[in-house]
TrEMBL record:
<keyword id="KW-1133">Transmembrane helix</keyword>
<feature type="transmembrane region" description="Helical">
    <location>
        <begin position="463"/>
        <end position="486"/>
    </location>
</feature>
<feature type="domain" description="DUF112">
    <location>
        <begin position="20"/>
        <end position="437"/>
    </location>
</feature>
<protein>
    <submittedName>
        <fullName>Integral membrane protein</fullName>
    </submittedName>
</protein>
<feature type="transmembrane region" description="Helical">
    <location>
        <begin position="356"/>
        <end position="377"/>
    </location>
</feature>
<feature type="transmembrane region" description="Helical">
    <location>
        <begin position="144"/>
        <end position="163"/>
    </location>
</feature>
<keyword id="KW-0472">Membrane</keyword>
<feature type="transmembrane region" description="Helical">
    <location>
        <begin position="389"/>
        <end position="407"/>
    </location>
</feature>
<feature type="transmembrane region" description="Helical">
    <location>
        <begin position="20"/>
        <end position="49"/>
    </location>
</feature>
<keyword id="KW-0812">Transmembrane</keyword>
<feature type="transmembrane region" description="Helical">
    <location>
        <begin position="200"/>
        <end position="223"/>
    </location>
</feature>
<dbReference type="InterPro" id="IPR002823">
    <property type="entry name" value="DUF112_TM"/>
</dbReference>
<feature type="transmembrane region" description="Helical">
    <location>
        <begin position="315"/>
        <end position="336"/>
    </location>
</feature>
<feature type="transmembrane region" description="Helical">
    <location>
        <begin position="61"/>
        <end position="82"/>
    </location>
</feature>
<feature type="transmembrane region" description="Helical">
    <location>
        <begin position="169"/>
        <end position="188"/>
    </location>
</feature>
<feature type="transmembrane region" description="Helical">
    <location>
        <begin position="109"/>
        <end position="132"/>
    </location>
</feature>
<dbReference type="Pfam" id="PF01970">
    <property type="entry name" value="TctA"/>
</dbReference>
Length: 497
C-alpha cells in the first residue's frame, strides 16, 4: 500500500501542467531524434541531455523519461523502415519488421511495435512499482564486497553477450576502464592519465564519452561507407491493425514483459538477450511458423514488448543500486550526478518526490507515446528522406554543441573528436560500444568498492568473498564464464554418441 500511495503522490507531481509539458516535449524530441537512421535511444538521450540542464531536477527527469521511451520507439521505426537498427535491442524488430515494410505492411509493423512498447512498458513499470522499494530495502545491507561482486558480474555479463567474441567485448571494456581512470585518484588525490593537463583532472564526462562513441563514431563510420545515390524511402501509410493482426499479436504483447523485465532488472541486464528470447519463443509458439523470416507480425510484437519492459527493469538496478546496466541508464546516472543526486538504496527515502514523480511520468510518457506516434508515424517516415550527408552533418553539429555545453571548454570538443575516432576504430574492428560506456561509468566505482573491501579485510583477498551474497554472485559469474565450454562438451558427447 505504501508503494501505491507514493505512486498516487507521484502522479500528483507528474500531472502538473509544467511537468506534463516537459513529458510531451520529451516524447516528441526523443522520437524525432531516435527515428533518424543509425541513432538509438542511448545516442538520443546523450544528445538531448544538455537540453535538461536548465530545468529543476523533477522536471528534467520527467522530460528524460519521455526522451527515453520516445527514442526507443523511434529506433524501432528506423529498424522496421530502413533495416537500420539504431542499437542492438532493435535488431530483432528488423528481422520481421523490414520484410513486412517491403511487402507493403509497414503500417501494421509500426502499429504492432507501438502497442508492444506501450504494453511492455506498462507491465514493466507496474513491476518496477511493486519491486523497486523492496530491492532498495534489501540493498541497504549490501556492503563493499557485494557491490564489487555485482559490478564484476555487470562487466562479465555485458562483455559476454555483446559483439562477435568475448575477447572483443573484454577489449572494449578495457578501453572504457582506461578512460574511467583519467583524473584524480579519489583516495590519494594523485593525477592519473592527465598528461599534466588540469582540465583532465576532473576526468572525462560520461556524456562526452557516450556522444563520442555513439554519435561521432557512427557518423564517421557512415561517412566512410556512404554509397553515392539516394535510395527511395519506404512508404508507411496509415498505421492500423486488422482483427487477424490483433489476434496474432495480443499474446506476444503480454508474454514479452515477463521475458524482458527480469533481464533488465538484474545487474548487467539489457534488452538484447530478452528480445532474442522473445523472438525464439514466439517462433516456437506461433501457428504461422512459415511466415517467420518473411514478415511475421508476432516477431515484431513480442520482442518490442520485451524491449520496453526491459527498459523499465533497468531503472530498478539504476535507482536502487546505482548500477547502470545499459548505455541509456549510464547517461541517466550521469544526469543524476549533475544534480548532486546519487542513486542507491537511500534514494527512495531522500528524494521520494523526484523518484515517484519519475516513475509516474513513465506511465504518462507511455500514453503520450502511443497517442502521438500512431498518427504521426507517416510524418516520422518523411524525416528519413533527408539525404544522409546532410543528416550526419547535423548529427555532428548537435554532438559538438552537446559536448561543449557540458563544461564550456574548447578542449571538450578535441576530446569528443578523439573519442569519436576511437568509436570509429571500434566499429572497424568489431568491438561493441556498450562495454566501453559501462566501463567508464562503473570503473571508478568498482575501484572504490574494491579498495574499501580490501581495507576492511586488512588487504586480504578473502575480504572479497566473505559474504553469502558475494559468493553467490561469483558462482553466477563462474557459470557465465564456463557455460560456452560446457555447451561445447555436451554437443561433442552427443555427436560421438
Amino acid at each position: 500500500m505504501d508503494s501505491l500511495n507514493s505512486l498516487i503522490d507521484g502522479f500528483g507531481t507528474a500531472l502538473t501542467p509544467i511537468n506534463l509539458l516537459w513529458a510531451v516535449i520529451g516524447v516528441l524530441l526523443g522520437t524525432a531524434i531516435g527515428v533518424l537512421p543509425g541513432i538509438g535511444p542511448a545516442m538520443a538521450v546523450a544528445l538531448l541531455l544538455p537540453v535538461t540542464y536548465g530545468l529543476e531536477p523533477t522536471g528534467a527527469f520527467i522530460m528524460f523519461a519521455g526522451i527515453y521511451y520516445g527514442a526507443m520507439f523511434g529506433g524501432s521505426t528506423t529498424s522496421i523502415l530502413l533495416n537500420t537498427p539504431g542499437e542492438s535491442a532493435a535488431v530483432v524488430a528488423a528481422i520481421e519488421g523490414n520484410p513486412m515494410a517491403k511487402s507493403g505492411r509497414g503500417s501494421q509493423a509500426l502499429a504492432a511495435a507501438a502497442i508492444g512498447h506501450f504494453t511492455g512498458g506498462l507491465i514493466g513499470t507496474l513491476l518496477l512499482v511493486a519491486l523497486a522499494p523492496t530491492v532498495a530495502e534489501l540493498a541497504v545491507d549490501i556492503g563493499a564486497p557485494d557491490y564489487f561482486a555485482i559490478m564484476v558480474l555487470a562487466f562479465i555479463a555485458v562483455t559476454s553477450v555483446l559483439g562477435s567474441s568475448r575477447i572483443r567485448g573484454l577489449a572494449s571494456l578495457l578501453i572504457g576502464l582506461t578512460i574511467g581512470l583519467i583524473g584524480l585518484d579519489s583516495m590519494t588525490g594523485q593525477q592519473r592519465l592527465t598528461f599534466g593537463n588540469l582540465h583532465l583532472a576532473d576526468g572525462v564526462d560520461v556524456v562526452i564519452v557516450a556522444v563520442g562513441l555513439f554519435a561521432i563514431g557512427e557518423a564517421l563510420w557512415v561517412a566512410a561507407h556512404l554509397r553515392r545515390g539516394a535510395t527511395a524511402p519506404i512508404p508507411v501509410g496509415r498505421p492500423w491493425l486488422g482483427k487477424d493482426d490483433v489476434k496474432r499479436t495480443w499474446k506476444p504483447w503480454l508474454r514479452g514483459p515477463f521475458i524482458g523485465f527480469p533481464f533488465g532488472a538484474i545487474p548487467a541486464g539489457g534488452a538484447e538477450i530478452p528480445t532474442f528470447l522473445s523472438y525464439v519463443t514466439e517462433k516456437r509458439l506461433s501457428k504461422n511458423k512459415k511466415e517467420f523470416g518473411k514478415g511475421a507480425i508476432e516477431g515484431v510484437a513480442g520482442p518490442e514488448s520485451a524491449a520496453s519492459a526491459s527498459a523499465s527493469g533497468t531503472l530498478v538496478s539504476m535507482l536502487t543500486l546505482g548500477l547502470p546496466t545499459t548505455a541509456v541508464a549510464a547517461v541517466m546516472l550521469a544526469a543524476f550526478q549533475q544534480y548532486g543526486i546519487q542513486p542507491g538504496p537511500l534514494l527512495f527515502e531522500r528524494e521520494p518526490d523526484l523518484v515517484w514523480g519519475l516513475i509516474a511520468s513513465l506511465f504518462v510518457g507511455l500514453v503520450l507515446l502511443l497517442a502521438l506516434n500512431l498518427p504521426l508515424a507517416p510524418v516520422w517516415a518523411k524525416l528519413l528522406r533527408i539525404p544522409r550527408p546532410y543528416l550526419y552533418a547535423g548529427i555532428l553539429f548537435f554532438a559538438g554543441v552537446g559536448a561543449y555545453a557540458v563544461g564550456g571548454e574548447a578542449l571538450d570538443l578535441v576530446i569528443l573528436l578523439i573519442i569519436g575516432l576511437l568509436g570509429f576504430g571500434m566499429r572497424r574492428y568489431g568491438l561493441p560500444v556498450l562495454p566501453a560506456v559501462i566501463g567508464v561509468i562503473l570503473g571508478p566505482s568498482a575501484e572504490q568498492q574494491l579498495r574499501r573491501a580490501l581495507q576492511i579485510s586488512d588487504g586480504s583477498v578473502t575480504g572479497l568473498v566473505n559474504t553469502p551474497f558475494s559468493v553467490t554472485v561469483y558462482v553466477i559469474i563462474a557459470i557465465l564464464l564456463a557455460w560456452p565450454l560446457l555447451k561445447k562438451l555436451v554437443v561433442r558427447r552427443r555427436s560421438h554418441s
